[in-house]
Amino acid sequence: MSFEFPRAAGNRRGYAPAQVDALIERARLQHQNPDQAVISASELRNVEFDFEPGGYLIAAVDSAIDRLEDSFAAKEIARLRANASEQAVADRLQRVTDIILGRLSRKHGRKFAKTGILLRGYSRRQVDRLCVDITNHFEKKAALDLNSVRRATFKSSRNGYREAQVDAFIDRVIEALQIEKNSRP
Predict the structure, then answer these.
(1) Do the beta carbons of residue 112 and residue 127 sit within 8 Å?
(2) What does the domain layout of the chain look like in residue ranges?
(3) Residues 6 or more apart from 59 whose CB is under 8 A from it?
């Protein structure tokens, strides 16, 4: 597992190289010692880096982290299957899907807590549009691209949805999509 990232030109900002390199080293240790819990797919999904001039190009790092996350998720699912059973994987998917569908069953514009009139949060309209796509996937088996969920961005708006709740929900959707992807024969 080898990663070399291009740097942002001049004074353009990119991810702090020391932080990225430290994370890649942890991922390398996990890869070399798969039975140890050095870093998980969930941790990779939620990693954040500081920015600095001349840092690593954001898109290149994000793409590498996505590949690592997918690889680690596949290994975690395979480990669950080997240590428990295929039914354990199916049960995990069902539990996560039930949580997702519970949130999706809420009324349009009320799926998540709002920030209030004075604070800004994610645009309720944009989040609800993504929720329609997610609902169609889980209820009607419509295709849903993992990367489109992973890279979803929302405008900031007053009285919007609380970002932490939406982000946690998206993490659950990504987890479910990874389980689905790695449960296919």
Answers:
(1) yes
(2) 13-82, 85-183
(3) none
